[in-house]
Amino acid sequence: MLNLLRSEWYKLCRNRSFWLLLSLLFASAVIYVLLNYYDDPNDGGALTGMSGLDLFASSMGANNYIIKIGLSVLAGFFLSSEYSTGTIKRAVASGYSRSKFITAKLLVFIVGAMLTALVFPLVNILLGSVLFGRGDLSGGISETGFIVRSFVLTLSLAAAFAAVTGAIATFLTDSGKTIGTVFVLYFFADGLYAMTGKFLPFVNTLYDYSIFNLITHYADPDMSGSDFAQSVSISLLVAIAFVGIGIAVFRRKEIK
Length: 256
Prior knowledge:
One of its GO terms (molecular function) is ABC-type transporter activity. One of its GO terms (cellular component) is plasma membrane. Keywords: Membrane, Transmembrane, Transmembrane helix. The chain crosses the membrane at residues 18-38, 65-85, 106-127, 147-172, 179-200, 228-250. This is ABC transporter permease subunit. It is a single chain. By secondary structure, the protein is mainly α. Helices cover 79% and strands 0% of the residues. The protein contains ten helices and no strands. It has helices at 2-13, 16-38, 52-84, 87-93, 98-132, 143-172, 175-197, 202-208, 211-214, 225-252. α5 runs antiparallel to α6 and α5 runs antiparallel to α10. It is globular, with a radius of gyration of 20 Å. The mean pLDDT is 85.
């Protein structure tokens, strides 16, 4: 299993799409901070980030979409593309256990997704604090506690979304279908929940505890300790469940 993990990690580190995605996110974060830094509010400037924490909070909102879009692209080019190139067929034929092989691949994909989710907010808080100062939060909220909590939720939710994406990629096997399906699912899930909830009230309750709802509140400075623990727990359970689903699908799948 350790050799499989090393092999998959090596492939991820050699994946150009992964590094291109990280580079784009890093560059976007730097540009965003600099736009705030050179923006003149007296000249009608619309960007109002005046501290590292202000930039961090706004970047967390943008990171909601980065997680969804980034994972779609990464899954398409890291997971699904290996079906078309025959890499997965050769690996399975070489004698590796299907369960161990797909577990290693999904775990490495999840780690890659977590790293991707960290880039934009991390650059914003670090570079923003250097240029503007860290700043503070109103209401006596601990700045360090807020930052740590936000990063923990970012990692746990990224893991959950990555596991869902990985299971879909394992089922579809085609990079184009994977990217398209995940895009549609992630960007229309809220509307589907709301529409269905009008006829089936219990769906609204399901939505309240779903990762699609949790990610809209993961950067709330006023989040209570119990809500934080609940969000992390749900995210980890979703990640574990969908890794299991991905394994079950792969074990029964015909590899062409």
